Amino acid sequence: MPIQNTQNAYKAQPQTNFRQSGAEDRSFGFESQLASEQIRLGAISAEAPTVSHLLVRHPEYGKECWDIVHSEVNAGKPYTRIPAETPIYMNPETKEISWTARPGSESGAEEANETARTSGAADSIRSMSPTMQAITHAIEKAADAHGLSADLIQAIIRAESDFQPLAVSDAGAQGLMQLMPDTASELGIIDPFDIDQNIDGGCRYLKQMLTIFDEDLEKAIAAYNAGPGTIQAHGGQILFKETRLYVDRVISSLKQAV
């Protein structure tokens, strides 16, 4: 199958609207520096399964969603494994995101990491929202089908859409793995916003990049973002700053998952 150079390094980050949802308040347990001044963003739910879903609709901070989630104070936090009904807070001065710990755990972040890495993974999945359950199952299915690491797929999705199935960038990239329309069409994807179709198609495209670049992970990740033609045109070098930051973000997420 010929590969079109349609995935490019200049895709704007996703700007997506989500339906409103609410949940009862809880005590604040995952302390940050100025707990008394925390803003309550809402609670994890079926309609807001990740921190980004809550933050993107905030009237003041929604437009800063991508920068806040990927800032130095928030990078690496396990946003996608936070149990349903967990209230999410943000420090308006530092933009640090935090959430309430469940009973018996030292912090919500530590609990999420632990449940993801132990033999109780099935219980962890059941505690997720239906959307995150569907994404997790789709990742596992695609990983098996295409011989890819589930952690790598998750790292790509985190960097591309931060687990927002309906994400659409200003450049037109769509869905969880932010496929450009021409690329999605070439991959035979009928509905780019369908979780299974988008992840399967994105994984097939990623596998093609790995094949083109002889399993060189960094080059393949860069090509997924910038397009294979761009990377080949520069002799395999990753020259564009945005692409370099993208690759570093994916590799960082991948290392944290190990």
Written description of the protein model:
The chain is mainly alpha-helical and 258 residues long. The protein has 2 domains: 17-128, no CATH class; 129-257, Lysozyme (Orthogonal Bundle). It is 43% helix and 5% strand. The protein contains 11 helices and 3 strands. Strands 1-2-3 form a 3-stranded antiparallel beta sheet. Strand 2 (87-90) and strand 3 (97-99) form a beta hairpin. Helix 5 (130-146) packs parallel to helix 8 (195-212), helix 6 (150-160) packs across helix 11 and helix 9 (217-226) crosses helix 11.
Overall helicity: 40-55%
Q: For the terminal residues, how far apart are their CA atoms?
A: 33 Å
CATH class call of the largest domain: Mainly Alpha
The chain-level structural class is mainly alpha
Approximate strand percentage = under 5%
Quote the average pLDDT. 77
Molecular shape:
globular
Strand order of the largest sheet: 1-2-3
From the 3D coordinates, which CATH architecture of the largest domain would you assign? Orthogonal Bundle
Query: Which fold name corresponds to the CATH topology of the largest domain?
Result: Lysozyme
How is the biggest beta sheet arranged?
3 strands, antiparallel
Count of individual helical segments? 11
* Number of self-contained structural domains: 2
Q: Would you identify the regions where 5 or more consecutive residues have pLDDT less than 50?
A: 1-6, 12-36, 102-121
Radius of gyration: 18 Å
Number of strands: 3
Order of helices and strands: EHHEEHHHHHHHHH
